[in-house]
Amino acid sequence: MDTFTLAGKTYHSRLLVGTGKYKDLDETRRAIEASGAEIVTVALRRMQLSSPKGQSLVDAVDPEKYTFLPNTAGCYSAEEAVRTLRLAREAGGWNLVKLEVIGDEKTLYPDVTETLKAAEELVADGFDVMAYTTDDPLIASRLEAIGCVAIMPLAAPIGSGLGIQNPLNIRLIVEQSTVPVLVDAGVGTASDAAIAMELGCDAVLMNTAIAEADDPVLMAEAMKLAIEAGRKAYLAGRMPKRGVASASSPSEGKVA
């Protein structure tokens, strides 16, 4: 069976999903179940611990069933991100974390300087760091050298749904990395997820593409199937691209 390993733990699903932006906790639960995901992200600074009905996130998403991946969405400096994750580890015992340091409110692009600084501190402090970053192969290489357990280049700006804007860069990062590479941010629909997997990515993380679909539960299922299809296509090896037509039927032995 095709599996992928992250920080020493093996997972069967290559789709990671977020827990934000859904209309309620029931929709959150149903979408996550339909996605088949085993890892769910939780934005520590934005986490809604309870709803007006008194339900909590853990009532909808069982931490015994899913691996919770706390992330630092909303942090704008290394100091803020490190402090947030240290507090999270003290409160919930989380060691596998997603590091995200944003540069500005308009583009929501990663601040790679602050990301590198935070990664160094967190790895030294014993965290298993999955680093969200730009699609720059040089930065990806530096994050791996620091000791990050996964590199997470963006496909496009957060929440844009534009799909993979620089497939060459993603492929270069995949080819040079010895740790898992996960496309994160910018996926809009199932074909985007399939392309990421066809490029050789180990997994894809998404939230908005599912949560803001007209039917989030159906989209979650579509994403699951797209991940599986893209992975199988990558393993199968695509046909070469040609500049001219090539008949699909053999010419040998044809009747004159």
Write a concise keyword list for the protein shown above:
single chain, 256 residues, alpha/beta, 5-stranded parallel sheet, 10 strands
Brief rundown of the structure:
This protein is of the alpha/beta class.
- Principal-axes geometry comes out as globular
Low-pLDDT sequence parts: none
Structural class: alpha/beta
Strand percent estimate: 15-25%
**C-alpha-based Rg, rounded:** 19 Å
Round the mean pLDDT to the nearest integer and report it: 92
The main sheet comes to: 5 strands, parallel
Strand order of the largest sheet: 5-4-3-10-9
Q: What's the β-strand tally?
A: 10
Query: So how many helices?
Result: 9
Secondary-structure element series: EEEHEHEHEHEHEHEHEHH
Helix content: 25-40%
What is the CA-CA span between the terminal residues?
48 Å
Provide a descriptive summary of the structure in words.
- The protein is an alpha/beta fold and 256 residues long.
- Helices cover 38% and strands 16% of the residues.
- The protein has 9 helices and 10 strands.
- The protein has helices at 25-35, 57-60, 78-92, 112-124, 137-146, 167-176, 190-198, 208-211, 216-236, and strands at 4-6, 9-11, 15-18, 39-43, 67-71, 96-99, 128-133, 150-153, 182-184, 203-206.
- A 5-stranded parallel beta sheet has the order 5-4-3-10-9.
- Strand 9, helix 7 (190-198) and strand 10 (203-206) form a beta-alpha-beta unit.
- Helix 1 packs parallel to helix 9 and helix 7 (190-198) packs parallel to helix 9 (216-236).
- It starts with a strand and ends in a 20-residue tail after the last helix.
- The mean pLDDT is 92.
